[in-house]
Task: structure prediction
Amino acid sequence: MNTAIKNIFILILTLSITSCGFQLRGSQDNSFSSIQIDGISSGFIKELKKKYKQSGVEIKNSSAEKSIEILTDQFDKRILSLSSTGKIREYQLNYHISYRIKSSLGDWGPVIKINSTREYSYDDNNIVAKQEEERNLIEGMKEQIIRTMRSQISSAK
Result:
């Protein structure tokens, strides 16, 4: 009886998840098999290379099908609002990346800029929780920029 209830619960859970349209993201299709990534931001480049390796693209130091150069990788945090007592109430996080893609003819294309912005409320009573929230927001912004870059790089000629 206990296993029957368990199986029914799993069946109902599975049906409800699939009926709402939930779908795993999966890997992004790439129109190339090798890429060269250069630039100033070692941390961002490392994360981008990791995503390409996971999708089966070979990372090369030269003579790759696609070449990109990260020109800027900037993060800034600014105060968005203050309370009547002068305490910080909200922050705005900004992440800026600019890069360029080498064309199949060997010429560098125009600079492409991607910006991501997030806002969050701040509370002096929950400093640790708000620091963790900020860290999660930054990671999400970085993931969003990488997804956008990968789709732009795949569609570039």
Remarks:
- The chain has one domain: 2-155.
- The chain has three helices and five strands.
- The helical segments are 2-19, 42-54, 127-155.
